[in-house]
Amino acid sequence: MSKGSNFNRVKLDKGVTNRLRNLKGKTGLSRNYLCRLGLCYSLREPVPPSPAEYNSEGQELDRYLLLGDDAPMYVALVQERLIEEDRDPEAEFYDQFVAHINRGVEQISGRISDPSDIYDLIPGDLKPDA
Questions:
Q1: With 0-12 CB in 10 A as exposed, 13-18 as middle and 19+ as buried, what is 7?
Q2: What is the pLDDT of residues 83-115, one digit of tens each?
Q3: Are 40 and 48 in contact (CB under 8 A)?
Q4: Alpha helices, DSSP H, located in 11-89
Q5: pLDDT value at residue 130
Q6: CA nearest 81: which of 93, 63, 72, 66?
Q7: In the chain, how long is the greatest CA-to-CA distance?
Q8: Domains and CATH numbers, the chain
Q9: What is the DSSP letter of 26?
Q10: Measuring CA to CA, which residue among 103, 100, 96, 102 is closest to residue 2?
């Protein structure tokens, strides 16, 4: 049975957990913020991630610590994406949510070597005029 959007814990991929550890050391940011960044980064990709590509043998995170006060916004972003893809926003929510985090963390881990690199991840149309 699917967890839908009603869950308390998130189990990450083991490799992603190692990448988070490295990113935290490079940036000083918490795993929660890095996962949020990865989630948003992955949501901008045109092709949905494949949950089958990731295991659940890594770190387990509390949903409320992971998403903070902005939890409804992150849930809505993933649900909107699922609706746009003609998928069930409740039945497929958890698997896609975790897959987006896993994929996003993988993607940003190769692009960040220090905190200043985070700015480069922001799409040009969202950056303030310099």
A1: middle
A2: 999 999 999 999 999 999 999 999 999 999 989
A3: no
A4: 14-27, 31-43, 63-67, 71-84
A5: 52
A6: 93
A7: 49
A8: 9-115 (1.10.1220.160)
A9: H
A10: 96
Place of tokens 């003609």: 86
Q: In 10 A of CB 18, how many CB atoms?
A: 14
Give dist(CA 12, CA 92) in Å, integer. 16
C-beta of residue 31 within 8 angstroms of C-beta of residue 20: yes
Residue positions counted in the chain: 130
* Residue with token string 């949903």: 63
CB-CB contact of 95 with 5 (8 Å): no
Tracing tokens 């896993």 back to the chain, one arrives at 102
Asked if residue 35 lies in contact with residue 59, where contact means CB atoms within 8 angstroms, the answer is no
| Residue whose token pair is 């799409």 | 123
Average pLDDT over residues 15-38: 96
